[in-house]
Amino acid sequence: MNDTQLLRYSRHILLDEIGIEGQTRLLASHALIIGAGGLGSPAALYLGSAGVGRITVVDHDRVEATNLQRQIAHTTARIGQFKALSIAEAIAQINPDVQVNAVTQRADDALLNELVRQADVVLDCTDNFQTRHAINRACVRHAKPLVSGAALQLDGQVSVFDVRQPSAPCYACLFPEAETPEETDCATMGVFAPLVGIVGSVQAAEALKLLCGFGESLAGRLLMLDARHMRWTDMGAKRQATCKVCSTA
Q: Which helix (H) or strand (E) is 13 found in, with range?
């Protein structure tokens, strides 16, 4: 770590839980973020500012004016640009040392299988169940920790799915694909702007803890936020023996 990095990351280095060793681990780490919208924006900015050495951002959508109410990585000047490229530009303005790979393809099974295998931690910042289940399958297949977040209207949730822990569930244990509810999105239901910032920031915190190797992750716990009353609910969750995704992992 050079003098410039020692200065940039000094507030992390002062923490006993991180220090020089933890910050060095972050600089050598690779985070994969799928979704560059409301959740992906704060998650990517915090991982970049914290010094995660490599960040891959996957999103095939482009920035629209309606995104700017909550997707804080994007700007009016970047309307029409691919969101993944916009986030890469935003991270570079904060921390030019971070290597950002912007992928402007849809996150299908083949792409996820390739990208998840290369990552140290995966952040699901998407907004549809089909992609979430595809991400989960790839993470289980390659035994990679998955930090999953969701937000709609004034309700949010976040958890870590880490099948490296014998009793920890995967995403499908809590939300079986066969029982997937009807899709809803913020374009028709609305979403409270700060809510995605809160959830995305928690995702970033969990990812950084996993990469540094300190604290207790949300594996085996589902954290739910009711922003109407600003109340958190912490619910325990275990691996399901009948899960079609992780029961044989």
A: helix 10-13
